[in-house]
Amino acid sequence: MDKPIDNFWDLNLRELKQKLQDNGFEVHMAESAEAAKDVVLNDILPELKPKTVSWGGSLTLADTGLYEYLRDSDEYESLDTWDKNISNEEKHELRRQALLVDCFFTGTNAITEDGHLVNLDMIGNRVGAITFGPKNVIIFVSRNKLVPDLQRAMDRIKEFVAPVNSMRLDMQTPCIKTGYCMDCDSPKRICNVWTITEKSFPKGRIKVVLINDDMGF
Ligand code: SF4
């Protein structure tokens, strides 16, 4: 068999797709980051016709190249909360405004085999937008985010995702020195708000793009 690993994941992602659909999520499949971008541009956005777009922290989203595309497009008004040239105050205000956009893009920290999205935020703007506010949410989910259940999702996030994210963002939290969570009281603590999204309400508001590739962390 050619590409047994991709084949393995394809079978698992197809099962996950069914679970997600049963939970009211709209689901799209893509074989790569580039294909995920194509799915959004060719299938999802022409249907939604959003006027305003924004995004929350996600390396997987960044890896699709969609961020630059949307940011530079004349077709949409984008609220660029990733703009490195604006002040923290401006960024904070944009994050608040982003809760009312037509289409919000992000990733997930983990997804369970039952089709539940599990996330942990520092500020809460990303999980806030997933939960309520934007008319539509598009979530990129690469295959390496799939875990068996909620406990494994939370373990994955606290034992791996959060320390690595702290390191990526130079957060000066204890975990960047130990490599594991110290349940810190640091002012830079990035672990403040958990969400578990079991179902999409209203049905179809959250659109999941499952990607048969390892992306982000
Ligand atoms: S609680 Fe603190 S030490 Fe633990 S992972 Fe989060 S930032 Fe790091």
Q: Care to describe what's here?
A:
With 217 residues, the protein is α/β, with parallel strands linked by helices. It has helices at 4-22, 33-48, 59-64, 66-72, 88-97, 125-131, 150-168, 175-178; strands at 26-30, 52-55, 77-79, 103-107, 110-112, 117-121, 136-142, 146-147, 193-197, 206-211. It is 41% helix and 21% strand. The chain has a 6-stranded parallel beta sheet with strand order 1-10-7-4-2-3, with helices on both faces. The model has no long low-confidence stretch (mean pLDDT 97). The protein has one domain: Rossmann fold (3-Layer(aba) Sandwich), CATH 3.40.50. It has 8 helices and 10 strands. A hairpin with a 4-residue loop joins strand 5 and strand 6 (117-121). Iron/sulfur cluster binds next to helix 7.
